[in-house]
Amino acid sequence: MTQIYESVVRIRFGHCDPAGIVYHPQYFAILNYVMEDFFRDVLGITFNDVETVGVGLPVAGVRCDFAAPGRVGDVCTARLWAEHVGEKSIRFAITMHCGEELRLQCIETVVCVKLENGRLVSTPIPDELRAKLAPYAADETTPPLRLRA
């Protein structure tokens, strides 16, 4: 069974627009914090440490559906898992709920790269990272996210 990483997200005043709802670009910052926590808690590396394993994992693409507005004071649960772990890329699935209400769902694809002659070049995901990701990789019981976007 696929393990799901969970993180509590508090919606703050600074996340919101004058109408009091989360301004959609703020969700991308929030999702980045969730991803940063996943890297630290599961992979054992911080974004600053990623070079210690000889590779980086920059974002190559993001797709996101906003299902319901978030408001100041909401306490949400972000859930993250790897929908697909390829040879050189990982497609993460992330959902955010407030109670039972879905607020957003997102697919974020990262590519494994290394620095070669001053250029970023895609490279296979190191075995050590792949092993730490394995429990969070979707299996046949984990349906893929269905995004409208």
UniProtKB/TrEMBL annotation:
<keyword id="KW-0378">Hydrolase</keyword>
<dbReference type="InterPro" id="IPR050563">
    <property type="entry name" value="4-hydroxybenzoyl-CoA_TE"/>
</dbReference>
<dbReference type="InterPro" id="IPR029069">
    <property type="entry name" value="HotDog_dom_sf"/>
</dbReference>
<dbReference type="GO" id="GO:0047617">
    <property type="term" value="F:fatty acyl-CoA hydrolase activity"/>
</dbReference>
<comment type="similarity">
    <text>Belongs to the 4-hydroxybenzoyl-CoA thioesterase family.</text>
</comment>
<protein>
    <submittedName>
        <fullName>4-hydroxybenzoyl-CoA thioesterase</fullName>
    </submittedName>
</protein>
<dbReference type="InterPro" id="IPR008272">
    <property type="entry name" value="HB-CoA_thioesterase_AS"/>
</dbReference>
<dbReference type="Pfam" id="PF13279">
    <property type="entry name" value="4HBT_2"/>
</dbReference>
